[in-house]
Amino acid sequence: MATEKLVLLHSNDMHGDFLAEPKNGYHEGGVSLLSGFIKQVREEENNVLFAIAGDMFRGSIIDSEYRGFSTIELMNFLAPDVVTLGNHEVDYGLAHLLFLEKCAKFPIVNANMYVKTNHTRLFQPYEIIDVNGLKVMFIGIITEEVLASTRSEEIIGSFIDVWDAAKQVGVIIDNYKTTRIDLTVLLTHIGFDKDQQLAQLLDPNWGVDLIIGGHTHTFLDEPCIVNGVPIVQVGVGTDQIGRFDIEIDTDKHKMTNYKWECIPIDSRHCKSDPILEEVLKNYKNRTDLKYTKIVTNFKRALTHPSRYQETELGNLCADLLQVDSSFEVMLMGSGSIRYKTMGPIVQFQDLKECLPFNAPVWMLEITGEQFRRMMKFMLRDENIAPDSHGEFYQVSKGMKMVYDKTKHEFEEFSLNGEEIKDDRIVRIALQDYHFKNFTEFFNVPLEEVLANKKARMVITDDFSIFEELLSSMNNIDSHVEGRITIK
């Protein structure tokens, strides 16, 4: 039996985590150290590939200031062999994404994002890479659930769920895979739970060897094996990288053995890449000039430790948008807040990175009965599980919910001390993303709510509200007050 070794490195959900951070006398993460590690492995091993499973964009001033162009340039120096799309790759719009693809010096694969009118694919569905005679096929997959934000782009769509995605994998393999393919990898951005469902649906005859995933920021100690297919994901950012050491039978064109580990990226294990460091420094110097001004100060550092509970930062953000407004309750998307801790000194850069989604805010009039249904759906067991990656909301001052998890009932559901009765009309507000995905996120048809009264845009840019109000405030404090209590 003739065998060859392949080293397959992979990252996911880098989210603009470009800069190394000091930690106990050494530096951790950042693209310069990551590049140094990848170059080291490429020097030590003969057959090496590096893949990224989506969401290179967002999370950094360097990314948002240059609308992803800086990220593509940095990735060009990092030199991945293949990348698949994540949901945040479309944050700057479809036309801009297609422009950025032209700037990329690496292939971007996606099998199931298409133009709705004629079902034309927007990207190449797969890439076959020849590594010294070994042929490795990568297929990129995303689903409609993950692509919810692209509903602002009416022209594009995706297959609805993992069942359709699995069928599409079969179509691609049946039509394009040859007997000379030695390894088949699904490069997905659908979330760890969906990866498991997808693996279960794969026909073993298709010969899918691995699933490298993203989206849910899941850290794994070892691969999860489903239907004989190893599934891996390496959390979020650039503080770690996944590594497969794979043995391939080149006569039978199949994987015979593998070892996988999640490797820390820090200055104790990696040397920094001086070229990438210079490019990064250039971007950082330019953004620092603009973004290091101090906006305000907090009385102490405020926290947002989990997106599935009431938080200090969440309460502050919801309250700021509700100040002097025409609505009674702000439902602030927990996932819109990107820092776990902010302050006590708040620079403009902190504000932009913590609250990166400049978006309109819409006001809706809903009945008390509809409001209860919405919040019950938010508080369902599977949605508030640690790895659910579901939608959760911070609520503005005056709102109080006490939810009994065992009975699935509210013990209290009140606004400004008064019970919200079923027939009461409540004026709520939502950011644009959550308004456009209202039915999916709340399990209440948007049409049913709009029958009460037409929606109205009440804020054109929520970030401008945060910047304006915080700039005029000082020594700010916020506490968890029991606005949302889960018993």
Structural summary, described in words:
The chain is of the alpha/beta class and 487 residues long. The protein folds into 2 domains: 3-285, Purple Acid Phosphatase, chain A, domain 2, CATH 3.60.21.10; 295-486, 5'-Nucleotidase, C-terminal domain (5'-nucleotidase,  domain 2), CATH 3.90.780. It is 28% helix and 29% strand. It has 14 helices and 30 strands. Helix 4 (94-103) links the parallel strand 5 and strand 6 (108-109). The chain starts with a strand and ends with a strand. The relative contact order is 0.12. The model has no long low-confidence stretch (mean pLDDT 91).
Task: Give me the count of strands.
Answer: 30
Helix count equals: 14
Question: Separation of termini?
Answer: 60 Å
Under CATH at level 1, the class of the largest domain stands as: Alpha Beta
Count of separate structural domains = 2
Shape field: globular
| Biggest sheet descriptor | 6 strands, mixed
Main β-sheet, spatial strand arrangement: 6-5-4-1-16-17
What is the strand and helix layout of this fold?
Elements (H helix, E strand, L loop, with lengths): L2 E9 L9 E3 L2 E3 L2 H14 L3 E6 L7 H5 L3 H10 L3 E3 L9 H10 L4 E2 L3 E3 L4 E2 L4 E6 L2 E8 L14 E3 L3 H15 L6 E6 L3 H10 L8 E3 L11 E3 L2 E4 L7 E10 L4 E11 L9 H18 L2 E4 L4 E2 L8 H11 L6 E5 L7 E2 L2 E3 H7 L6 E7 H11 L14 E3 L3 E6 L4 E7 L2 E2 L5 E7 H5 L1 H5 L3 H5 L5 E4 L2 H10 L12 E3 L1
Parallel strand pairs: 1-4, 4-5, 5-6, 10-12, 12-13, 13-15, 20-28, 25-30
Antiparallel strand pairs: 1-16, 2-3, 7-8, 7-11, 9-10, 14-15, 16-17, 18-22, 19-21, 20-24, 23-28, 23-29, 25-26, 26-27
